Amino acid sequence: MSFVRYKIFGKKKYAYEITSIWDSTKKTSRQRVKYLGVLNKNGSVSKKDDIPKKEKLILDFGDSFTLFEFMNKSSITKLLGDVFGEKKDYLLALICYRICHLSAMSYADIWYEGNIGRFLFKGLNLTSQAISRCLEVLGEEVLHREFFNRYISLFIGRRDGIIIDTTALPNEIHLGSNAWGYGNGEIDKQIKLLVAVEKESRLPFYFRYLPGNIADVSSISITIEEIKRFGIRNSFVLLDAGFFCEDNIKGLADEKIDFLTRLPSGRKLYKGLVRKEVKEIERIKNAVRFGKRVLFIKQNE
Fold this sequence. Notes:
Blueprint: E1 2-9, E2 12-23, E3 28-39, E4 45-46, H1 62-73, H2 76-84, H3 88-100, H4 108-113, H5 117-120, H6 128-138, H7 141-156, E5 162-170, E6 179-183, E7 186-198, E8 204-211, H8 220-229, E9 236-239, H9 246-254, E10 258-261, H10 268-277, E11 287-290, E12 293-296
Parallel strand pairs: 5-9, 9-10
Antiparallel strand pairs: 1-2, 2-3, 3-4, 5-7, 6-7, 7-8, 11-12
Helix pairs in contact: 1-3, 2-3, 2-7
């Protein structure tokens, strides 16, 4: 026996033919459903097969896809492939995960299952153990140097002028470099991250971590020397006040590198200049427009 059943989806009504049949295996009756079409206003049924399709999969799309397209068009994907070979897709997936989700690597496999990345970077094992094995390979010194040599040639172009700064990274990880140190106005157990940025493009091209108890002043000479090995010949360096000391200033002068730095307020030179100039500094002749602000600047040898 057959009859017609109607279902409404959105603003349309759909017709189905329902037929009762006997299942001789299960010894029971069941229904067979046949789709007839859309019910028109005049009561007729259109044979056009436009029944709404059921959802098969829901994925986060926009963030990872945008990053994927950006990395392809900016040659980053090719660069990673040239250096890291078959690990390229693994690294691209981890980059998307870390940029879009500031969470622990142990959750990367959950992100991967619900993200378009599982189709952009197919067949990856993103469990914690697999990520650890991959990072061990990616951490090889030879690959680091090869990557930065190619990266600098492609994006930096060995132009003059760099900015060097460090930041303290407080943590409770059991690392040999983790040590008590002063940073951000507090004393914490920390490591320090030193980064060098090309002044014109504002792109980073060099980084390394330092023990948390190493003062900034003791790291600048080694940093300059290592940067020179990558073929970058600096004519100008912008430094944070933490790098200011007599040895660093003399070293930069010996290398004929111009520099700009903030004089630490604890220095006698700073205090003497303030006492000498504070009464006369806010004069019209010393006014300089900087963006929407007006600063008072006076030059002293």
